[in-house]
Amino acid sequence: MKVRLIYPEGGKFPLRYRSRIAPLGLITVAAQFPRDWQVSFTDERLEPVDLEERVDLVLLSAMTYQAPRAYQIADWFRARGAKVILGGPHPSVLPREASFHADAVVVGEAEGTLPQMLRDLQNGSLQRVYRCPEKIDLTELPIPRRDLLRGKGYLPVDLIQATRGCPVNCEFCAVSATFGRGYRMRPPMEVLSEVRDLGPYLFFVDDNLLLKRSYTEKLLEGMLALQKKWVCLGSIRIGDDPGLLDLMAKSGCWLMYVDMGPWLSANFSARTPNLQQEERCYRNIQKIHEAGIEVIGSFAFGFDHDDPGVFERTVRFCQRARLDEVEFLILTPYPRTRLFERLEGEGRIIERDWAKYNTMNVVFRPRSMTPEQLLEGYRMAWREFYSHREPDHAPRIGELTLQPQL
Ligand code: SF4
User: Fold this and answer.
1) Fewest CB within a 10 Å sphere: which of 27, 101, 137, 258?
2) Structural domain contains residue 88
3) pLDDT grade, residue 269 (50/70/90)?
4) Whose CA is nearest to atom 2 of ligand 1?
């Protein structure tokens, strides 16, 4: 059986190097195929899809902004007789829509349904939708087929995942809809054993690796001996926990991606801003820096409290905090999130082309400014921050400097 896994193109994010970070989901799925199947992988962000290839099965994974392109590719291969399976965050929340373009749709985590689906495929009894009945246990997860990534030009960083899910359930976030509100953890020994076989630089893709202190501590104590350098996503509140911050630095954390969330911009826009809160955030960034860890700050614009002055105030904060890199996003209501449902109910969704749901377009009517002001302010923030940043003040992977290429 000849199988092609495809990660579709989905627009050019201003920090271009991000498209050179390998996706983890499809290569994890690849590990579940029978060994005698011929499985290969295309990342359309880095190489064209060979539309003339004769394959038996095409499997595509799509975030919302990739869905239109995934559907195009799916339709093309189906018209040529290949079976097509769609999965990933977008088909999981809108399986009916996806099923118009696929022979089968995987809803939720593929690890839970793939073996049955592959058996059905071989028996000629493929179902339209495969739903994982419950969130899967993360013990003995398949080890991703990283061999499929070789030679594609990815950054020299190995992606790994230790936990899934988030109990916080922020209104705008799709993580709870995708991975659930429970916080599930892989056994630390299994993560460490996978880490041991990886290269010197790692990226923990967990939405919040630091959520459960006792777990993180156990994992990082194991990392001490492995001498790896690693990146993670986490909360700015880590600055309030000097013990864990110290352990992060000692175990090799060199870069942290911090979602600044709506509370900071709410404070910027308030009539009587809580300066203590802003100072606390500023101080926590300093503490992370003092621990020797670089900080990437992520800021979304377009919350109901954001007025037209939010862009300038945010850039000023980023400059004062000397963030090593920032990303600015336009708030995007992904389907099935609480934010989407609310804006839909208020008649404020103005764009239904999923390709535009990529944090670079305004797809809803903001409350305290016009869509044009939101778009222009977002662009101004990128220009303003990066035109004043010193060129050597950028995150690095070893000798490699990650320049923004706006
Ligand atoms: S934004 Fe972060 S904290 Fe909020 S639900 Fe998503 S992963 Fe959890």
Assistant:
1) 137
2) yes
3) low
4) 207
Same-domain status, 192 and 229: yes
Residue with the smallest CA separation from ligand 1 atom 6 is 173
pLDDT in tens, 171-181: 998 887 777 78
pLDDT at 264 over 70: yes
169 lines ligand 1 (CB under 6 A): yes
Same domain, 109 and 219: no
Burial pattern 275-291, b for ≥16 Cβ within 10 A else e, equals: eeebeebbebbebbbeb
Distance in angstroms (rounded) separating the CA atoms of residues 106 and 98 = 10
**Residue 341 sits in which domain range?**
146-401
Cα 208 to middle of ligand 1, angstroms: 8
Q: Which stretch of DSSP H or E encloses residue 74?
A: helix 67-79
Is residue 170 within 6 Å of ligand 1 at its C-beta? yes
Q: Whose CA is nearest to atom 3 of ligand 1?
A: 168
pLDDT of residue 278: 85
* Whether residue 307 is found in the same domain as residue 266: yes
Residue 270's pLDDT is what? 65
Rounded Cα gap, residues 294 and 253, in angstroms? 9
Atom of ligand 1 nearest to the CA of 174: 6
Query: Can you give the pLDDT at residue 388?
Result: 85
Interatomic CA distance for residues 8 and 6, integer angstroms: 6
Distance 387 CA to ligand 1 centre (A): 30
Looking at the structure of the chain, the number of domains it has is 2
The answer to whether position 379 is within a domain reads yes
Ligand 1 in reach of 210 Cβ (< 6 A): no
Q: 354 with 206, same domain?
A: yes
Whether the CB of 166 sits within 6 Å of ligand 1: yes
Compute the average pLDDT of residues 137-142. 92
